[in-house]
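In this section we turn from sequence analysis to structure. A common task in structural bioinformatics is to predict how a protein folds when a small molecule is present, because the ligand can shape the pocket around it. The inputs are simple: the amino acid sequence and a SMILES string for the ligand, here FB9. Study the lines below before reading on.
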Amino acid sequence: LTAEMITSRSWENAKFKDYNFSAEGIPPNGGCLHPLMKVREEFRKFFFELGFEEMPTNNYVDSGFWNFDALFVPQQHSARDVQDTFFLKKPAFTDKLPDLDYVARVKATHENGGETKGIGYRAPWSEEETRKLILRTHTTAVSGNMLYKLAKNGFRPAKYFSIDRVFRNETVDATHLAEFHQVEGVICDKNLTLGDLIGFMEVFFAKMNVRNLRFKPAYNPYTEPSLEIFSYHEKLGKWVEVGNSGMFRPEMLEPMGLPKDVRCLGFGLSLERPTMIKYGISDIRQLMGPKVNL
Ligand SMILES: COC[C@@H]1[C@H](c2ccc(C#Cc3ccccc3)cc2)[C@@H]2CN(C(=O)Nc3ccc(OC4CC4)cc3)C[C@@H](O)[C@@H](O)CN12
């Protein structure tokens, strides 16, 4: 069948053989995984070996509720400004929030601590703010959603991971893009401690031959305590920050309905940083676009 046959309509009198649906396609003449995707497969292997389940992260768009409020990120936090976050214009708001008694517990926890031992942010909490649609700034938005489902379906110890794109309204330069891939892990069980977090980080990073970690107190609105993770990089001859971590706060976990003795630890790093080190890439922009000059 040719274009000329179609235009001249000669195909109408032509005889065609039956279509062979079991014919094999033409074998592709080559191709390879993008470096980021190669490193992603290495991380997925580590997580599966450690007994983690992969989270469904195929929603780049999320609500202010899941990306911020459910994680106890205050509505006045600068991370929620247009300088840091990409807001959707159409549709600008979601009409899908989880069950209203959970939203009410989140609202109360933000305003005055609600049923937690905390006192909250003592500032009005706006439902319009929580309904805003954004490009998620971290995969922790999905982690929160998974923990909520775990509470709703009946708590059991769980280990979740995700490796997917996140978006931040950042100035692009040699080490920063407006989007990057976050690698995130969450472990939930009764009575986990900060020692379990530190010990697990040693195990996880040992999988990529990163050892002798050092931990530095840090801050995240959704974890307390929080720790930045460092490792001495022999080739670079300096201490390199290799990730961030913490114990999720009761103000995030209790409104979800998780039992009060359940503790959840979380940690994250980027996919781009280890990929750049592995492939000797100095400018992160080399990882973008159809052609990768390696
Ligand atoms: C906008 O910055 C965010 C990103 C990204 C990041 C930071 C925090 C998290 C997180 C988290 C978190 C915390 C608590 C609970 C749940 C998730 C995830 C990604 C990296 C996190 N970082 C990072 O990846 N560094 C890194 C990781 C691996 C590596 O090589 C491997 C050893 C072979 C080399 C470096 C640290 C820095 O690069 C940092 O400057 C940039 N960070």
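The mean pLDDT is 95. As an exercise, try to locate the residues that line the FB9 site and compare them with your own expectations.
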